[in-house]
Write a structure and sequence with these properties.
By secondary structure, the protein is of the alpha/beta class. The protein has a domain of 207 residues: NAD(P)-binding Rossmann-like Domain (Rossmann fold), CATH 3.40.50.720. It has 13 helices and 12 strands. It is globular and about 55 Å long.
Length: 321
């Protein structure tokens, strides 16, 4: 049997990188974590004998090539600040050039629902038009186009795995994180409204095993796939369950589009959230029956169990990024 090649996680220090690393480690596979800060990588992966820590400068072609040397597969998780999405396409272009010159065979981009724009009826399959009406959606679409255009070029196969919003243990960048912290501390949770519209979330630890499988499924490449959550839930229901675990009634401060606009006068991140607020009022829900047909049944954590684990993590003061 052919030995499985080494996987590199580019932009590994975030929460998704940690989920994929845990799945690779559980499968007994050695992997490389690549990021700008050795300290952040050391903190997240230093305990794992399977992890090799490498720093890079994604603006430097030689640095990208060195970070990719000897890898069979690269999983691309590089984030940019929310108000700097214009960086996504040029960073992707440089990375693709670096990994192909290093002889990498496969690249997986972890993508979002942004490139679709508004859903034309949920749940949506992969054949839904990609017609983003937002700047962030357009930048993500450009990034994806670069990845898919590179498929079959210079020995590289590529795919995009599209995820809904995620939540999990101490993920500060999750929409739901404030709810778990609020429930654990007995304080008021700040949430972005509206909170009674059903929304799809994926429990981040469920993502890693799927990506691990895709690194060794050659027939998956050359297209994009959906990985869905376990149906939909409202933010109010998440809050009800989380606060109930603490024996409390939910206490929420809901910021709607108007409040985000006002806060955006002082806070650039809040200003950026206004553009994407359509996803709160008109959610995009993914159908992942194609991926299930390819990989077989996908294990997913129920909302009840995911909320319980996220609440416990908040109560124990666990913080990921």
């Amino acid at each position: 049997m052919q030995a499985m090649g080494k996987v590199g996680l580019f932009g590994a220090a975030g929460a998704a990188g940690q989920s994929i690393a845990a799945a690779l480690s559980a499968a007994g596979r050695d992997y490389r974590v690549v990021g700008r800060s050795r300290e952040a990588l050391q903190r997240a992966f230093g305990h794992d004998p399977h992890a090799e820590i490498v720093t890079w400068n994604p603006d430097d072609p030689a640095s990208i090539r060195a970070a990719a040397a000897g890898l069979q597969t690269v999983v691309y998780l590089v984030g940019v600040p929310y108000d700097q999405f214009a960086q996504h396409p040029p960073l992707m272009e440089k990375t693709l050039a670096g990994v192909t010159s290093a002889g990498v065979e496969r690249l997986i981009l972890i993508g979002t629902v942004y490139p679709y724009g508004r859903a034309r009826g949920n749940p949506i399959r992969e054949d839904h038009p990609r017609e983003p009406h937002t700047f962030k959606g357009r930048m993500r679409l450009e990034q994806e186009k670069l990845v898919l255009a590179a498929h079959g070029q210079r020995g590289l196969d590529t795919l995009v795995l599209r995820l809904p919003d995620f939540y999990g243990l101490g993920i500060e960048r999750s929409l739901l994180n404030g709810v778990f912290v609020g429930a654990a501390s007995g304080k008021r949770a700040q949430v972005i409204g509206p909170i009674d519209v059903p929304h799809e979330f994926i429990f981040l630890p469920d993502v890693g095993p799927v990506v691990e499988k895709l690194t060794r499924t050659p027939q998956a490449y050359g297209r994009w796939w959906h990985l869905a959550g376990v149906g939909t839930i409202t933010q109010r229901e998440v809050a009800r369950q989380a606060y109930a675990l603490a024996g409390r009634e939910p206490k929420l401060m809901v910021a709607g589009k108007g409040m985000l606009r006002m806060l955006g006068l002082f806070n650039p991140l809040m200003r950026e959230l206004v553009e994407m607020n359509y996803l709160m009022t008109e959610p995009v829900v993914l159908d992942d029956s194609a991926l299930t047909a390819l990989l077989g049944p996908i294990e997913k954590t129920s909302y009840q169990e995911g909320i319980r684990q996220s609440f416990e993590a908040a109560r124990n003061g666990h913080v990921a990024q």
